[in-house]
Specification:
heterodimer; A: Nonspecific Lipid-transfer Protein, Chain A; 5-stranded mixed sheet; B: about 800 residues; alpha/beta; 7-stranded mixed sheet; 34 helices; 18 strands
C-alpha cells in the first residue's frame, strides 16, 4: 500500500514504469526466496506480484471488476500468515479495482485457506495443479468460509504465469525466467 | 402370450454383436460415433438460467415461479441440434457428448480449471475459450454467494465444514437434486397439454390457497417449456429435411418432425412416439435437475402397450424396434457429469447412470416379462456402452428359467450388463419401508442399485455417503479423526486401553456410528430445506404421482413416498477390521497372535511398519467376511443391523425414511487411496472393497462368498447393495449359461438382493491398464454402474484387477 501511495501524484507513464520495476524486483526476490528454500515468504511475494498485475494489466483487472472479498492464507504453524483484500484502490485521482496484501491475518475474512505447512503450500503453488479439492482431500490444505471465493482466487492466481509469459510458477521461479 | 414371446425371441436370435453392421447399420454407425465422442462442457443452460435469474432478481415474484420461468424459458429457447442420424429428437446438451454445468450446485468448482480442464490428464472435458470467458465473467460471479453449498454454510457452517473434510460424510444434495424415477407413463398416456390443462384447472380451484396456487402455476409454466422444446425440434427437423440430400437422413428428419409435433404435447400413439416422448421428457428434466441418475424406469412395462400394438398390427418390425430402442440407448448416453479434477479421482469414469429396469413381476405379482423385455435385452447385448445402466429384475418363483438364462447369456456375452435384482427380497424390503405391496412390486432401480416404487417415490437415494473407515478410526482414537484436530469430533468414547471386552469397544463403535448418522442427517435435512427455498422442482413434480393431487412440490413431500438414501463406503474392510480386533485383541483362545487394542492401534497407525508378522496374520488368518467363519458371519450381520438401527428412526425433511444401502460407485477406490491402514491388514492408501463385496483375494469358494452376502438381512438394506463378482471368461454354451443362471437363482433363494458381474480375467485387465489403447472400449461394472476401464482412475483400475476371480465351471477361487 505504501508503494501505491507513493505513486499518487506521478504521471501515468512514470507509474507504469515503477510498477514494472517493482514487478522485476519482486521476481528477483521470488527467485532468491525459492533458491534459499525460504518458502514461507513465497506466497506473500506472489500476492504482491498479483496486486501489481491488477494495477498494471487492464485485462487481468477485468476479472475483479467490482469484486470484494477478503482472503486469509496461512499455515498451521502460522509461519505463513497473509491476507489479500479485494477492494477499490485509489490510483491517481480515481478508484480502481485492486487487491491489497497484508503480512498478517485480517479479521472476518470471506475465506481462509490453511496449508499444512510451507512445503504443502509450495507444493501446491509449484505443482501447476489447480485442484483445490484434491489438496483438501490429501489433507494438504483446509478451507473455512466461502469455497467459491477460493475457486475464483485460484483461477486468478493461475493466470499470473500466463500473463508473465510462462507456463507455470516453476518457470517464474527459475533463474532463467 | 408365451407363444408370442417365443416368436419374438426367434426373430431376435439372428441379431448378434458380430452382425451389427450388416443387420442394423444405423446402430453400428451410432456405436462408432459414441465411442469416438469426446466429452465437452456445455454451458448453455447455465448461461441462460443465470441471465434469466439476474433479470428477474428483485421482482416481487415467488422463487418457485421465477425458477419455473427460468426453466421454461431455457427450454423454449435452447439450441436445437441434430448430431447424427439417431431416430429420436432431442438432446441433453448442444454437444454430441455433453457435460452440462449446473452453477447452483458444484459447477463453480471448475473455476480454477477453466484454462486447463480441456487438457487435464484424467478425463479431460473440452471447454471452448469463449465459454470459459462467459463462465468467468457472467455466470460464476452471480453464484458465488448463491450456490447450494454456500447457502447451507450460512445455516450450518460446522457440519458443512465437516462435509468439506471429504472423509467424514458426503451429502450429495450439494451437487444434485436427483436419483429418482419419474413417471413418464403419465406423459405417454395423457400428453403434456392435458397435464397443463389439469394444472390450470387446479389453479382456478385454489385461488385462496397461496402455496397451492403458486405450485400449480409453476407446474404450468415449466410444462410449457417442454411443449416449446418439442415444437422447436419438430420445426427444425422439418427445416433441415428440406435441404438434406441423403434420402435416409431426410426421411428420418421428416419422421422426427412429425413425431415431435405429436409428442409429448399429446398422448403417444405408436412405439416410436412413445420412446421419443419419454426421451424429450428426460431431456427436459435435466433443465431443472442435474444429470445424475434420473431413471427412465421399467421400460419394458411402460412402453409395452405401444410396442405390442404396433408389432401385432405389422406397423413395427423387429428391425425398427431395435433401431428405435437402440437410438434411445445412445441418447441416454449423450451426457456425462461435469467434474473437477479431484472428483475424477473419486467418481472418475462415470456416465450419468440412467437406470433401466426390465422384467420381474407386475403390480399383481404376475410374471411381467414380455416380448419387449427380450427386445431390450437384445439391445443391451448388441450395444455394450456405459449408459444406460440396465438392470434385470428376477422373481425366482414367477419369472421363467428362459428369461433367467437369457439375462445370464447377455451378461456372459457383453461381459458386464445387466445386473440381477431379486424381486422376492426387494419387494419385501420395500413393503417393510411402508410401501404398499402393489407399489413395491412396481419398483424400479435407481442410479446404481437403489430401489423405489417407480414414479411414486421421490427417492433422493444417494443423499448421504457414510465413511465407515472414519467411524472405526474415531472408535479407535477416542472420537478423534485424522482431519479435525486433537479433540474428539463429537464425543470421547474411550481410548484403546479403556476397553476390557470387544463388546465395550463395539459400544464405542456404535456410538460413533450413531453420532455420524445424526450429524449427516442433520446436514442433509438442512440441504433439503435449502432446496425447498431455492430449488423447487415444478417440472419433475408434474412427472410424478402425488404432487398434482396434493398441490405440493416434490421437494416439499408431494410424492406418494419420500425416502432418502444412505450408502456406506468401506463395509467389507471395516467388517474385517472388527473381526480382526475381536480375534487378536479380545480372544483368549487365540494363541497364534495376541495384541492389546492399544498395540493394534499403534501398528495400524504406523501402517504395519516393522509388523510384517501381524500384517500377514491379519491378511491371511484373521476371520474374513465372505467366508463361513462364525465370527465374520456374526460381525457382518451385526454391522448391517447397526446401520439400519441408527437410521431407522431418522426422518428426512420431507417426512420420509432414510434407506440404508451399500453401493460405492468408485468412491471405495478414491477414498481408500487417501486413508490410512486398517486392522484388517489393509495398508494405507489401498482401495477399499466395493459395495457389499467381500474383500479381494480371500481364498473362499464362490458359493461361500455368495452365501455370506445372501445371509444378510435384506430388510435392513432397503436401499440395496452392489455385490460385484468376477468370473473367468467361459464359452457362452447352454450349459454355462444355465450354470450361471442357477448360481444366481440359488443366491437369490438364499436371500441375496442384487449381484453384478465382470466376466474378465486378471491378465486382460492388467493388459488393459498397461496399454489402455489396446482395450479402448472395455466395459466393466464398477460398483453400481458401468464404465469404460480406460476412463477409470488408477486406484479403481487396481481395485478391479484385484477383485477375486472365480471359475464359473468349478466354483473355485482363482488366485491372482
Amino acid at each position: 500500500m505504501d508503494f501505491i501511495k507513493t505513486l499518487e501524484g506521478h504521471s501515468k507513464t512514470i507509474q507504469m514504469s515503477l510498477i514494472e520495476d517493482k514487478l522485476k524486483t519482486l521476481k528477483t526476490q521470488i527467485e532468491t526466496q525459492a533458491a534459499g528454500e525460504a518458502m514461507d515468504k513465497l506466497l506473500y511475494l506472489l500476492l504482491q506480484a498479483m496486486s501489481l498485475l491488477f494495477l498494471f494489466n487492464k485485462d487481468y483487472r477485468k476479472n475483479i471488476k467490482d469484486f470484494t472479498g477478503t482472503y486469509v492464507i496461512n499455515s498451521q504453524d502460522k509461519k505463513i500468515d497473509v491476507s489479500a483484500i479485494f477492494k477499490k484502490i485509489p490510483v491517481f485521482l480515481t478508484q480502481k479495482d485492486g487487491m491489497e496484501v497484508k503480512d498478517r491475518a485480517v479479521d472476518n475474512p470471506t475465506t481462509t485457506v490453511t496449508f499444512k505447512d510451507g512445503k504443502a503450500m509450495a507444493d501446491f503453488l509449484l505443482s501447476g495443479n489447480t485442484d483445490v479439492i484434491a489438496g483438501m482431500l490429501n489433507n494438504q490444505l483446509s478451507v473455512s468460509g466461502n469455497l467459491n471465493y477460493l475457486f475464483k482466487f485460484v483461477y486468478l492466481l493461475w493466470l499470473i504465469p500466463e500473463l508473465l509469459g510462462m507456463n507455470n510458477f516453476k518457470d517464474l521461479l527459475s533463474p532463467s525466467a | 402370450m408365451y407363444e408370442k414371446i417365443e416368436q419374438v425371441r426367434q426373430q431376435l436370435k439372428d441379431y448378434t454383436p458380430g452382425s451389427l453392421k450388416k443387420d442394423l447399420p444405423l446402430l453400428d454407425t451410432l456405436l462408432e460415433l459414441h465411442y469416438g465422442a469426446v466429452a465437452k462442457v456445455d454451458i448453455e443452460r447455465a448461461h441462460y438460467m443465470t441471465a434469466h435469474l439476474k433479470k428477474t432478481e428483485g421482482l416481487n415474484s415467488p422463487m418457485a415461479i421465477r425458477r419455473a420461468q427460468a426453466i421454461s424459458s431455457y427450454l423454449s429457447n435452447r439450441k436445437i441440434v441434430f448430431h447424427d442420424n439417431n431416430m429420436l429428437g432431442g438432446a441433453t446438451t448442444g454437444k454430441a457428448l455433453g457435460a452440462p454445468l449446473y452453477p447452483e450446485f458444484f459447477g463453480l468448482s471448475i473455476w480454477p480449471e477453466l484454462g486447463s480442464i480441456s487438457t487435464r490428464d484424467e478425463n479431460p472435458q473440452i471447454l471452448d475459450k469463449a465459454d470459459a470467458k462467459i463462465l468467468n465473467f457472467d455466470v460464476f460471479p452471480y453464484w458465488m454467494e448463491k450456490s447450494m453449498s454456500e447457502a447451507v454454510r450460512k445455516k450450518d457452517p460446522f457440519r458443512q465444514s465437516l462435509l468439506e473434510k471429504m472423509i467424514i460424510y458426503t451429502i450429495s444434495k450439494a451437487a444434485t437434486i436427483s436419483h429418482t424415477t419419474p413417471c413418464y407413463e403419465l406423459v405417454l398416456k395423457k400428453g403434456i397439454q392435458a397435464m397443463m390443462d389439469e394444472a390450470a384447472l387446479k389453479e382456478a380451484e385454489h385461488q385462496d390457497d397461496k402455496e397451492k396456487l403458486v405450485f400449480y402455476q409453476s407446474v404450468r409454466i415449466a410444462l410449457q417449456g417442454i411443449i416449446d422444446y418439442a415444437a422447436n425440434i419438430s420445426r427444425e427437423a422439418a427445416k433441415k429435411a428440406e435441404t438434406e440430400t441423403d434420402p435416409k437422413r431426410k426421411k428420418n428428419l421428416q419422421r422426427m418432425a412429425k413425431i415431435c409435433k405429436q409428442v409429448p404435447l399429446k398422448p403417444a400413439r405408436t412405439f416410436h412416439e412413445a420412446v421419443n416422448s419419454l426421451w424429450i421428457c428426460q431431456v427436459c428434466v435435466f433443465a431443472e435437475n442435474s444429470n445424475m441418475a434420473i431413471n427412465p424406469g421399467r421400460l419394458d412395462q411402460i412402453l409395452y402397450p405401444y410396442f405390442i400394438k404396433d408389432y401385432e398390427s405389422g406397423d413395427l418390425s423387429i428391425d425398427e424396434a431395435l433401431n428405435i430402442s437402440g437410438s434411445l440407448w445412445f441418447k441416454l448416453a449423450d451426457n456425462v457429469n461435469l467434474v473437477p479434477q479431484a472428483a475424477e479421482k473419486l467418481f472418475g469414469g462415470a456416465g450419468a447412470v440412467p437406470a433401466i429396469t426390465l422384467g420381474g413381476v407386475d403390480k399383481e405379482g404376475n410374471d411381467a416379462v414380455n416380448e419387449l423385455t427380450y427386445v431390450l435385452l437384445k439391445v443391451t447385448e448388441l450395444l455394450p456402452i456405459r449408459d444406460p445402466n440396465v438392470n434385470a429384475r428376477f422373481h425366482p418363483q414367477k419369472n421363467s428359467k428362459d428369461y433367467r438364462n437369457e439375462v445370464s447369456r447377455v451378461i456372459l456375452t457383453n461381459k458386464a450388463i445387466p445386473a440381477f435384482f431379486n424381486d422376492i427380497e426387494n419387494i419385501k424390503t420395500l413393503v417393510n419401508q411402508g410401501e404398499t405391496l402393489e407399489h413395491a412390486r412396481d419398483y424400479a432401480v435407481i442410479g446404481c442399485v437403489e430401489l423405489g416404487s417407480a414414479g411414486r417415490d421421490y427417492s433422493a437415494s444417494s443423499s448421504i455417503f457414510m465413511m465407515m473407515y472414519t467411524i472405526l478410526y474415531m472408535a479407535l482414537h477416542n472420537g478423534r479423526t485424522t482431519v479435525t484436530g486433537d479433540q474428539p469430533l463429537w464425543k470421547a468414547t474411550g481410548n484403546p486401553e479403556d476397553f476390557n471386552t470387544f463388546d465395550d469397544f463395539f459400544s464405542a463403535y456404535k456410538e460413533q456410528t450413531r453420532l455420524m448418522a445424526q450429524n449427516a442427517v442433520s446436514l442433509n435435512n438442512t440441504y433439503g430445506k435449502m432446496h425447498q427455498e431455492i430449488l423447487t422442482t415444478p417440472l419433475l413434480s408434474a412427472l410424478f404421482k402425488g404432487p398434482m393431487d396434493k398441490g405440493c412440490d416434490l421437494i416439499f413431500g408431494g410424492a406418494v413416498y419420500n425416502s432418502s438414501g444412505v450408502t456406506h463406503i468401506g463395509f467389507p474392510d471395516v467388517c474385517d477390521s472388527l473381526c480382526a480386533i475381536k480375534d487378536v485383541c479380545f480372544n483368549e483362545n487365540n494363541t497364534d497372535m495376541k495384541l492389546t487394542l492399544a498395540e493394534m492401534v499403534a501398528a495400524v497407525d504406523h501402517n504395519f511398519t516393522g509388523n510384517k508378522l501381524l500384517e500377514a496374520y491379519l491378511k491371511n488368518k484373521a476371520p474374513k467376511y465372505g467366508t463361513s467363519h462364525p465370527v465374520a458371519v456374526e460381525m457382518s450381520r451385526k454391522l448391517i443391523d447397526l446401520g439400519y438401527e441408527v437410521f431407522n428412526d431418522q426422518k428426512n425433511y420431507r417426512g420420509g425414511n432414510y434407506r440404508v444401502a451399500y453401493w460405492t460407485m468408485t468412491n471405495h477406490a478414491g477414498y481408500g487411496s487417501v486413508t490410512g491402514a486398517l486392522p484388517s491388514g489393509r495398508k494405507a492408501n489401498v482401495p477399499f472393497s466395493s459395495g457389499i463385496t467381500p474383500s479381494s483375494q480371500i481364498d473362499t469358494r464362490l458359493t461361500t462368498a455368495l452365501d455370506s452376502v445372501a445371509g444378510l438381512n435384506s430388510q435392513h438394506t432397503p436401499g440395496a447393495y452392489a455385490l460385484n463378482m468376477k468370473y473367468s471368461p467361459v464359452q457362452c454354451s447352454p450349459e454355462n449359461v444355465d450354470r450361471f443362471g442357477s448360481i444366481v437363482q440359488t443366491y437369490m433363494n438364499n436371500g441375496g438382493q442384487q449381484v453384478q458381474f465382470n466376466i474378465q480375467d486378471y491378465q486382460t485387465l492388467k493388459d488393459a491398464k498397461a496399454d489402455p489403447d489396446s482395450h479402448p472400449h472395455l466395459l466393466v461394472r464398477v460398483s453400481g454402474y458401468s464404465a469404460y476401464f480406460k476412463s477409470l482412475n488408477e486406484a479403481m483400475k487396481d481395485e478391479l484387477i484385484m477383485r477375486s476371480q472365480y471359475n464359473l465351471e468349478t466354483g473355485e477361487f482363482v488366485p491372482l
